[in-house]
Amino acid sequence: MNQAIQPGMAVEECVAWLKRLHTLFRDLHLILVGRITSEPCFELKTAFSLHAWLCAEQATALRNRVSELREPPLGLDLPPEPGLAWALDELRAAPGTALFCTALYGAVLPTLRQSLVSYCAVSQPLADAPSLRLVRHALLDLDDMLDFGRRLLLGWEQLAPPPCDPSLASTWTGELQQAFSASGLLAGTHRPPGADPSPDSTIARQPPLPARRFSQTPWQFDPLPRRDARFRDPYNGGVNPEAFLYDPAFLARDKTLMLFYKRLREIDVPEMMASILVESRDKPWEFLHAMTRQLWDEARHSLMGQVGFVALGIDWTQIPVNFTWSLNLNTQLTAQERHAVLFFIEQGLMPRTGKRFEWEVAQQSGVPLAATFQDFDWADEVLHAQIGREWYVTDFPDLNHALAYGDRCWSRVMSHWREYLDQGLTQHHNWWPDVYRQACQVWNTPPDPGTLAFRENYSQLRADLKEFSSSD
Known about the structure:
The protein is an all-alpha fold. 62% of the residues lie in helices and 0% in strands. The protein is globular and about 75 Å long. The termini are far apart.
């Protein structure tokens, strides 16, 4: 009752604060997405994918709450006010992974957490109960992100030399804090009841913004996928796992190796989808939110493949995981054309010969982890097909036209299989026999000669077993 009798904030003040929180979550989402493709480290690619989705989830919850608070027009898609804009532009333009992560996990997200906690402390617990509930949920996600960041930065502290200049990082994060302070409500500034509710009146009392450091030159998205040293031979197209998977001559147990490989290889989907999101950032927020969920799902599927190999005691880093699909789509097609290819592939996974077939193979394999992963992978892909129908198919007269366009777009993508070989970028080594032998040792069974001899590659066939363009 002692809390309930406090007057708290007026609706206008709550809305102004929630809008700033929304702006930060919304823009952090796209900043993280913009880093995925060019980030070499697998753990950071997947973490950025997850954290981008968590930010999108919280931005959506805040959008919905603001719409309930007597606030038409909402103005939720307007550019940030100057303090936030400065901080977000600087974070987006941060050179190098270490400086970016130091600022994100060491300064920006802790400031966001401070603002969420402050909101809970001063908002009227009865009148504003719906807002407080979503803020508490946001804190759960944010604490997970901060825990990841804390462990990341702690590990970097042990390195010699440090991954970024400590003096520069300290000075710059201090400037970020100064900009956040200038943004008013973000840091938890609370106006007493009856004070001027205009955000401008609060901002006017804040310190001036620092001079721009990294964002003097506008940030540019880098569409070229990059991988760390564990991803050896990234141009390798020497094994066609789909050809093995759909061949009835091979055992279901052996096919789980190709299923784990296909899942691990799906890291190229976030690398490609990030380019769609960045280049489509002016589309409705609902589109960005839905596509970010799919992006995180694909990153999660890649982690499933990694875990699958680890569970079998197989060193996944010995397997070439190529990036040519994301590389070629990002450099040869427009954002709409990339989305068309993505949807065409998703729809091809819906018939009985698609994701259900993969699940049935895993069920028959005697490898329980594979069955679990494929069960959820199938469920995720059904959702992704629905996302495509809502946000891609509606641009066409009907589903058939949308699929035909996606097929045409994919047919225009040059695989460069021969070119990569001629340039010495890869020998398209057939890695399958070595992996299969390792698995047979784990299973305590001799390799099957026919299975060991598998050598289909991607020189002529793409993943749906259709031929590449004859001009390639």
